Amino acid sequence: MPLTVGVLGMGYVGLTLTAALAQAGHTVYGVDSQPRVVEALRRGRPHIYEPGLTEVFESMVGRTIFPVGELPEAGLDAVMVSVSTPVDDRTHQPMLENLRAAAAHIAQRCGPETLVVVRSTVPIGTSRRLVLPVLLEAWGTALLCMAPERTIQGQALRELVDLPQVVGGLDEPSLEAGVAVFEQLAKHVVPVSSLETAEMVKLSNNCHTDLIYSFGNEIALIAEQHGIDPLEVIRATNLDYPRPDLSKPGFVGGACLTKDPYIMLASSPDAEPFLVGRARELNEHLPVHVAERVIAMVARARGGEVAGGTVGVLGWACKGWPPTDDMRGTAVESMVPLLRAAGLTVLGHDPMVHPDVIAQYGGTGVPLADVFQADGVVIVNDHPEYRALDVEPLVRGGRAAFVYDAWRVLDESTVRRLGLEYAGLGYRSRVAS
């Protein structure tokens, strides 16, 4: 049966959920507090890149998708709360003001017959401790669920249908209502015993991902000390061995993986976890380590003089695959200030990122070929354009002395044959023969 649903917060989570619900046949009111966002959406122009999103909005806005500044006052079967829950840059404590405001808005515009679903990532216990009291004060009773968002950028519209949707309820009526809603969206719904269980599911997914990536990075940093190729170690370790695979080293970015470990830490105030914080610390250290190595490589290329040199950076978004323009948690946020502090000019290119955004992060956006006019080139993400790069004409037309290929997407033998020094994560620089 088609539902009328409100979605609070038109960030990545809310936008993709709005599109998926509309595709499933429901009427959706997408709410955002920023008038420019609402106006753009009313024109069918999402402000965030995701494959398929623009096509859905272009075809359904005004028919089953209605971007608005506030929830309608009546007639909503459910409200999905997908507002941002950032952490403080300095203290790393979760900031829940947006969630508190969302709960107050729902309490004002809706009633106890409306199912409230928290999709935002929160510390364990937040739905019950923060959202529920606001609803109960206004209504006396409430239907409340927690159903975490777990999609990956580039595949969200498919994964919202194909991935299991975990739903935890305040009580049995809440759980039944939540399961009924998500069964009309997803192929598989997983009921769990409480709001808190569902909250921890999301945190566990992302903290585990951060952890396994950190181990690959740990391997790389140890291998670097011994002149060992970490990719050779990882390939040999994984080959036909029946235990869990080791992850390749790489930068860990994006909104969730850089934020959710701190939310998990905030969920355990009585006993600090052993692994979660250290894994995050290691992954945050990696861009700093790479920047320091790049500065040393510039120094070698320029006879010891760093200041006045240039570095070309390929890949500014937080990841290259699936392609995204998302800058949240991007490695360049830590790297570029260190490069500039050493006196380097940073040239930048990313197929998905506008030069104006590159400028905001301290670089000068240039065409791809111009990046190789720098003293050296750093590949920071693995966008398909970089994986398919014909490096020979770029090198022959440029003056770069080295390539730091963080994702090992180029052919090392070609780079070395052209006379450049080659390095990667955990991979000691190879001087061309």
Provide structural commentary.
With 433 residues, this protein is α/β, with parallel strands linked by helices. The chain folds into two domains: 4-193, NAD(P)-binding Rossmann-like Domain (Rossmann fold); 197-433, Rossmann fold. The protein has 17 helices and 15 strands. It has helices at residues 12-23, 35-42, 53-60, 97-109, 126-139, 156-162, 172-182, 195-226, 230-238, 255-266, 276-301, 332-341, 355-360, 368-371, 384-387, 391-396, 412-417, and strands at 4-8, 27-31, 65-68, 78-81, 115-118, 143-146, 165-169, 189-192, 310-314, 345-349, 364-365, 376-379, 402-405, 421-424, 427-430. The strands form two sheets. The chain has an eight-stranded mixed beta sheet with strand order 3-2-1-4-5-6-7-8, with helices on both faces. α1 links the parallel β1 and β2. α8 crosses α10 (255-266) and α8 (195-226) runs parallel beside α11 (276-301). The chain is elongated, with a radius of gyration of 24 Å. The mean pLDDT is 96.
